[in-house]
Amino acid sequence: MAIYTDPIPEGIKLDAGITVDGAMELLKKYNDEPFHHEHGETVGKLMRYYAEKYDPENADFWQITGILHDLDWEKWQDEVQHTVKTADLLAEAGVNPMVARAVQTHNSDHNPELPKPQHKMECVLWACDELSGLIGAVIRMYPSHSAADLNLKSLRKKYKSPAFAAGCDRENIAKGAELNGLDIDGLLSSMIEATKAINGVL
Length: 202
Known about the structure:
The protein has nine helices and no strands. It folds into two domains: 20-105, Orthogonal Bundle (Cyclin A, domain 1), CATH 1.10.472; 122-198, no CATH class. By secondary structure, it is mostly helical. The longest helix has 22 residues, at 120-141. Helices cover 57% and strands 0% of the residues. Helix 1 packs parallel to helix 3, helix 2 (34-54) runs antiparallel to helix 3 and helix 6 (120-141) crosses helix 8 (170-179).
């Protein structure tokens, strides 16, 4: 069981050991469902958007981490061991173990042996993962199916309705806001802007 606990240093150039395109190929190697491809791609793009704000030198690393964060989920669905197998798969592919560490932090609530989010990238990953699913469900609800129609009022309403997209953990989303020093409205507003940006509707 490969678990990497050393914190990722801030303020240095990071080499993931794999390209963005290579990360997508790796995701598709272990995931057949188009939904998992789309989720990985979406979280990757959101991560890149935030990297351009906080750590532009490492935009590729952030995006790769987002793409690969659920690498093991389709074939090894286990809430506690989720991301543990990912570390082995990434090691086999020659990926920098720092990517595995960053990925594993987003499941530390289910597995206390995993490292907790420390690096800004890890805090952003936590925020993007669950909330992107809720936002996707809201977009599909609109007749236009377009991110252009996203607004804080409708997203807040759906966030506060537990029956809507019930699989999206509201406590997890709230923790994402806390990790990034935001209140819920602040996180929702930020993710609306990010989602519109990656969909080319800003």
